[in-house]
Amino acid sequence: MLFFDEREELGAVSIIGCHGFTVMTGECLHYGDGMNVIDAVNQRISVRQFTNQEVEHDVLRQLVIDASRAPSGGNVQPWRIYVLEKEATDRLRAVIAGNPEMAPPEYDIYPSGLVEPYRTNRFALGEQMYAKLGIPREDKAGRLRQMAKNMQFFDAPASMFCFIDRGMGAPQWSDLGMFLQTFMLLATERGLGTCAQEYWSVQHKAVREFCGAPDNELLFCGMAIGYTDTSAPVNSLVSERMPFDDFAKFVK
Ligand SMILES: Cc1cc2nc3c(=O)[nH]c(=O)nc-3n(C[C@H](O)[C@H](O)[C@H](O)COP(=O)(O)O)c2cc1C
User: Fold this and answer.
1) What is the pLDDT of residue 156?
2) Which end of the chain is more exposed for a tag (fewer CB within 10 A), N or C?
3) 147 C-alpha to ligand 1 centroid (Å)
4) Average pLDDT of the chain to the nearest whole number
5) How far apart are CA 197 and CA 240, in angstroms?
């Protein structure tokens, strides 16, 4: 098992090195038996460049079924999921490319006036990502171009959207997070990369129409799904986490 700092040094390629169960075949990562949960937790990153290798229908279907083992308060299972395979993902990419205009999201992605230390965490992520890509702060166009890759699902061959009934509240929204993280860990176990994308909340009208989602369902986020392009510098980003003492304490 590699530690974070070693992973950082070696770049994204090092995510294949885990317990010796992982072998690399071309651009695709295959995992054998024996990945522990902690391996999946440590290996999962937000992937922002994918290869064009397709993800099998049965794999996507099983991932969604398995992710639905996630807990939810009262077992209400509030997630409403729409999965797009390559053909549908390509069609949606074309729809959005034809009309990339963004609409105000139906929920606040961040609170207005994000306070510290959350503001700094968010800022740091952007700086680290653009540093990996060699895009300086002055290069606004370059940063916008990178941001716009969201609407192409970072070239992922498959995607997913997570909606929730408008009547649901904060507890049920947190249940969505449980579903999504379970999905992403299971995808990691299968050698797949993912990137959750709140970006899609600014394209909620087009996504709703495309998916045929009913009006009572509100779009929370999309997700890009596919095989990680391990040669892409952006995928070597290992985002930072606050130290224990900054967000947790033992109550004596
Ligand atoms: C609900 C959710 C929505 C996100 N939306 C986006 C997004 O629209 N675009 C993007 O590039 N990353 C998005 N991310 C990825 C976060 O930036 C990322 O999880 C965070 O920086 C931590 O990095 P890591 O996932 O590599 O550990 C999202 C993550 C979550 C959980």
Assistant:
1) 98
2) C
3) 12
4) 89
5) 19
Give distance in angstroms: CA of 252 to centre of ligand 1.
34
Q: What is the pLDDT of residues 217-246, one digit of tens each?
A: 999 999 999 999 999 999 999 999 999 999
Whose tokens are 């109550």? That residue is 251
Task: Give distance in angstroms: CA of 47 to centre of ligand 1.
Answer: 9
Distance between CA atoms of 229 and 233, rounded to whole angstroms?
9
DSSP state of 50: B
Using CA atoms, how far apart are residues 171 and 117, in angstroms rounded to an integer?
24
Q: What CATH number does domain 2-7+18-110+151-233 carry, 3.40.109.10, 3.30.360.10, 3.40.5.60, 3.40.50.2300?
A: 3.40.109.10
Could you tell me if 224 and 159 are in contact, meaning their C-beta atoms sit under 8 angstroms apart? yes
What pTM value is reported for the model? 0.88
Q: Is 196 in the pocket of ligand 1 (CB under 6 A)?
A: yes
Per-residue CA distances from 177 to 67, 151, 193 (Å): 11, 21, 17
Report pLDDT for 33: 58
- Domain residue spans in the chain? 2-7+18-110+151-233
Between the two ends of the chain, the Cα-to-Cα distance in Å is: 33
Place of tokens 């379970």: 182
What number does the ligand 1 atom closest to the CA of 45 have?
26
